[in-house]
Amino acid sequence: MATSRAPLRFAEAVSATVSAARESGFFFDFDGTVAPIMNDPDAVLPVPGAVERLGALSELFARVAVVSARPAAFLRERFSAAPGVRLFGLYGLQTVVGGEIRNAGEAEPWAPVIRRLIADAARELPGKVLVEDKALMVALHYRAAPALRGVVERWSSAKAAELGLAEQLGRMVVELKPPVPGDKGTVVATEAADLTRAWYFGDDLSDARAFEALRTREEGDPAFIGVKVAVANSETGDDLARQADFAASGPADVPAMLDEIIRAFHDKRDSR
Ligand SMILES: O=P(O)(O)OC[C@H]1O[C@H](O[C@H]2O[C@H](CO)[C@@H](O)[C@H](O)[C@H]2O)[C@H](O)[C@@H](O)[C@@H]1O
Predict the structure, then answer these.
(1) Which cofactor does it need (predicted)?
(2) Number of domains composing the chain
(3) CA 152 to CA 139: how far, in whole Å?
(4) 169 in a domain, yes or no?
(5) What CATH number is attached to the domain comprising 135?
(6) Is the CB of 168 under 6 A from ligand 1?
(7) Using one digit for the tens of pLDDT, what is the confidence trace for 112-137?
(8) Atom of ligand 1 nearest to the CA of 32
(9) Residue 29 catalytic?
(10) What backbone phi and psi angles, to 5 degrees, belong to 162?
């Protein structure tokens, strides 16, 4: 069994990555990581400079992807200026291939169940709960009324049991989704399978699965370096920070961090 590597300093992780750029990838969560948290989910845009930095990375390194719970169409709209960035929506149930959205076949039969659930939510939950319709999934937001957390979580658990759906908790949100295997960890494990270095940036509970995927790969493959970056926040950030190698103070900090990597890539190339 492989022993875990000694903790790397940031400069060492960057150096190991730019030295093997063609075998390196960068994976990003969206909300709370490269985009700010806001009350209205539809109004959210990436922080200034994020799309440009992800686009630049995609031209220098083997793989760059956004792995999010958002629908792929939402991501496609926001990352249209960075065509080299791969997009995985709804925890990997949707991808964008050649500009077209592809749904995981196993998830599609659940669309009528989700439609029924959305109608039930609109009728049965208090008006302050925002019901986000993602077609193959629904997100129940209580950010506008945090005291409703218990009401939302109990309603969600009962519906999940009744309809055979899976649940995912997040930042002032509960999601109900088809009980189809796969999460951010399986997306990252698959997408990083041919890489020897992979970075994951995340802020929320579902991002822990991606961190775990990098840890598992490191345990089985001593040549692999997984770099876990937690984006700090007072809601779900502490748990993730404990599992991370590095921290960013918030989404606005991420472009500057990526600049250090892009600069190191160019310095390395110029020194050859
Ligand atoms: O996987 P992610 O890209 O991080 O998506 C997770 C959820 O993000 C969105 O909700 C979160 O951001 C909202 C906008 O800032 C905020 O109002 C909400 O409280 C957060 O939970 C998105 O709306 C959800 O569908 C995603 O599941």
Answers:
(1) Mg(2+)
(2) 2
(3) 11
(4) yes
(5) 3.30.70.1020
(6) no
(7) 999 999 999 999 999 999 999 999 99
(8) 4
(9) yes
(10) -65, -40
